[in-house]
Amino acid sequence: MKILVTGGAGFIGSHTLVELAAAGHETVVVDNLSNSNRKSLERVAELTGKEILFYEVDIRDREGLNRVMEVHRFDACIHFAGLKAVGESVEKPWEYYENNIGGTLTLLDVMRKHGCKNIIFSSSATVYGDSAIIPITEECLKGHCTNPYGQTKSMLEEIMMDMQKADNEWNIVLLRYFNPIGAHPSGRIGENPNGIPNNLMPYVTQVAVGKRPELGVFGNDYSTHDGTGVRDYIHVVDLARGHVAALQAIEKNCGCAIYNLGTGQGYSVLDVVKTFEKVNGIKIPYSIKPRRAGDIATCYSDPAKAEKELGWKAQYGLEEMCRDSWNWQKNNPNGY
Ligand code: NAD
Ligand code: UFG
User: Fold this and answer.
1) CA 332, CA 301: separation in Å to the nearest integer?
2) What is the pLDDT of residues 178-194, one digit of tens each?
3) Which pLDDT belongs to residue 183?
4) How many angstroms separate the CA atoms of 315 and 334, rounded?
5) Tell me, what's the pLDDT at 259?
6) Were both Cys, which of 8, 144, 237, 281 would link to 29 (CB 3.0–4.6 Å)?
7) pTM to 2 decimals?
8) Nearest bound ligand to CA 212?
């Protein structure tokens, strides 16, 4: 298939480009580079042996998108482009709604005008809020999102479902990611956060590389096996392959389909620290800090639906995730 990849220069997008190429798909990337670097695309080209067709275009730029879609006829779009920092979204809600919702509305409109009505959307486990049912299935009720970032994901899911109901030529696959970490085993592409990392694994690797003195563990009084928060970490290469698998749903005219992409295993913050130390032979100093506002105790998936319907299942475990995150960080201490 020929696929438009928005946000393809980012963390998950760049890994997905590698897997799409391996599966024989053709790709065109649109990214405004607001949270990425074109070097990631050069590295993808190096890994795949193929040039990446790239347009530096903002998805809010209707004319820019039109120009791309006049030149290329796409079978589907994989839509990663968006802002994703939870804390920043609380401080800049307008910017998040405008970029994520405004941008996606423009993208969807330009797509339909060019006859492309197939989209795979990067949603998030955040839409489940603090689920009463664990492990979380796709049938679990969507919860209350405590921040504007989460709201944009939840609202965009609703918008796309309504569009699909009104026009059944649309095929919409909503992929709810759990916690992506790790990096390509080559160490050539990986996560490249700006400033102080918000998420656990990039913080751990920055402590390991000596950029930060210690990890703050946000709370050890949750009702989990060791008191620290439990999440479903998933290797980014597995997640990337989930997108290739999701193209099957599009090919079968799925209408609207929702899949959790996770491993189904929950690990605590201290499990991650201990595994990272064991696999990589590096001590991670940490201290216990107060709980972080908006955090929940436990969140992990039931990933059975994706396995049953798409034949997709995560292959990598926490050890490989820790190994590959460190391999990326140590080979690229300052990112790209
Ligand atoms: P990322 O920031 O590395 O990638 C997003 C890309 O989108 C960046 O390259 C950025 O420059 C681009 N972008 C942002 N706004 C744009 C715009 N208006 N026009 C064009 N390009 C734009 O993030 P990621 O971790 O690769 O996440 C990809 C997607 O997955 C996002 O939609 C994110 O919300 C979602 N997601 C991520 C996680 C996670 O933990 N990483 C979890 C759940 C969902
Ligand atoms: N944590 C720490 N110290 C840190 C960072 C995180 O103890 O420095 C803890 C958190 O309290 C939490 C766990 O590590 O218990 C994971 O936190 P992350 O910030 O890595 O991930 P979250 O589960 O909070 O959220 C992430 C993304 C969201 C997304 C969600 C589900 O940031 O955008 O996964 O996909 F919605």
Assistant:
1) 31
2) 999 999 999 999 999 98
3) 98
4) 29
5) 98
6) 8
7) 0.98
8) 2
Q: In ligand 1, which atom is closest to the CA atom of 149?
A: 34
pLDDT of residue 58: 99
Tokens of 91: 């401080």
Q: Is 216 in the pocket of ligand 2 (CB under 6 A)?
A: yes
**16, 34, 89: residue to mutate for ligand 1 pocket, most atoms within 8 A of CB:** 34
Residue 67 CA, ligand 2 centroid: distance in Å: 38
Write down the pLDDT at residue 144.
Answer: 87
Q: Which residues of the chain have pLDDT under 70?
A: none
* CB of residue 240 inside a 6 A radius of ligand 1: no
Which of 96, 149, 222, 316 is catalytic? The answer is 149
For the question of residue 222 being annotated catalytic, the response is: no
The number of the ligand nearest the C-alpha atom of 300 reads 2
